[in-house]
Amino acid sequence: MKPNNAEYIKELNRKNILNIIRSTPSSRATLAEKTGLTRAAITFIINELIDKGMVYDREIVKSSIGRYPTILDINAKYGYVAGVLLERHCCCVCIADFKCNVIAETTIDSSQSPNVVMTIDHIAVAIDQLLENAGLTKDMLLAVGISSPGPVDYKSGVILNPPDFEMWHRIPVTDLLSRVLGVPAYIENISVALAIAEYRYGISNIFRSSLFIEAASGIGSAVIVNGKVFRGSAGFGVELGHSCVDVNGDKCTCGNHGCLEMYASLKSLEHIFADKWPGSWEKVMDGMESGDEDCTEIFNHEVKYLSAALANAANSYDLDGIILSRDFAHKSEKLISQLHEELTKRSIISQIHPVRIEIAKFTGTSNSSLRASAATAIEHCL
Ligand SMILES: [Zn+2]
User: Could you state, in order of their start, the residue ranges of all structural domains in the chain?
Assistant: First the structure.
């Protein structure tokens, strides 16, 4: 049933306030300023959130001339969520508090599980075990967030047809896990989950329209506009990896020709530069720094194709920020400066206003993807 208008607006204001506090703990005055709500309205909503245990007054300090305003913060112990990261040969599971700090994690070797039902059972057992080890009871678990290679249908909770992921094709994974655990479950494709986590807990909330992009075996991407994931007409968002950067290029598995993924993913670089590939993007950057010609050639190739796609994205979504993640983070200064130079030449938008390129705050940490899965759950608990 749809809430009435007043309830709907109150709900929006409540979420807005919680989202501000979780990215930056704030005073009531700052909340009033940022939301445009009256101090009385802020006080009313905050009192409700304090009564619920979701936020608390974090006193800073008393001075001789009076008290400084108290800062409101999210109560990390309000509740806990589980994060599940489904990968091709294993799945990782974590428990995170309400501020999205991972407090326990484990890895399950799913290659030993012959079917989905058994893997779901293993995940549920792992979550129970992690809760118990952390001294938490099952009723403290609010929700489960799952991230998986895309495409996924985040609304129905079904994993569609990611390549090399046949066991999970057309599986209603949120329904299955929710039924076993007795709490709601939500799913996002891993790039969207990472983009959401970066927006809520990282650096991208300074941008109005930002692209999150990562390179691995494919190219993952997501766009966030004014704090909301750009979903498109059916929820599948932005597939920049399958945008064309060479109309005369070979045919991609998606049916298009010359897709970015065929030139700029790490798997493609390894294939294109079979005789020159040093083993990883990190080694490419290390080699280039020490003047290695092969590594410099690979780097220049990456910049050429990636910058073409970034210019397309900047022009399509009027971006003011681009967040590079995962392997791109290693010794990124040169990559950022070269991409920026190309972008300024190629994108009309970047000639009108600055388009900053940054490295994701949480990239490179071993549990950043797992944390992103937990963030997916928290999004739905506010
Ligand atoms: Zn393609």
Answer: 5-74, 77-193+367-379, 203-359
The answer to whether 222 and 192 have CB atoms below 8 angstroms apart is yes
Give the tens place of pLDDT for each residue, 117-174: 899 999 999 999 999 999 999 999 999 999 998 889 999 999 998 888 888 999 999 9
Find the 218 Cα to ligand 1 centroid distance in Å.
Answer: 10
Residue 88 is predicted with a pLDDT of 81
Task: For domain 203-359, give the CATH superfamily.
Answer: ATPase, nucleotide binding domain (3.30.420.40)
User: The pTM is what?
Assistant: 0.91
Q: Which helix (H) or strand (E) holds 318?
A: none
Superfamily of domain 77-193+367-379: ATPase, nucleotide binding domain (3.30.420.40)
The CATH T-level fold of domain 5-74 is Arc Repressor Mutant, subunit A (1.10.10)
Instruction: Give the residue, 89 or 252, on which the prediction is more confident.
Output: 252
Tokens in use for 218?
Answer: 């494919």
pLDDT exceeding 90 applies to what percent of the chain? 76
Distance CA 311, CA 342 (A): 8
* Better-predicted residue by pLDDT, 362 or 12: 12
Hey, which residues does 228 pair with through a beta bridge? 225
Same fold, 5-74 and 203-359: no
Residue 266 has pLDDT above 60, yes or no: yes
Residue 239 CA, ligand 1 centroid: distance in Å: 9
How far apart are alpha carbons 157 and 184 in whole angstroms? 11
Task: Give distance in angstroms: CA of 254 to centre of ligand 1.
Answer: 4
Q: Are 303 and 295 in contact (CB under 8 A)?
A: no
Q: How far is the CA of 255 from the centre of ligand 1 (A)?
A: 6
Query: Measured in angstroms, how far is the CA atom of residue 256 from the centroid of ligand 1?
Result: 5
* Distance of CA 163 from the midpoint of ligand 1 (Å): 12
Span from the CA of 227 to the centroid of ligand 1 (angstroms): 28
Query: What is the distance in A from the centroid of ligand 1 to the CA of 251?
Result: 8
8 Å CB contact between 208 and 199? no
237 CA distance to ligand 1 centroid (A)?
15
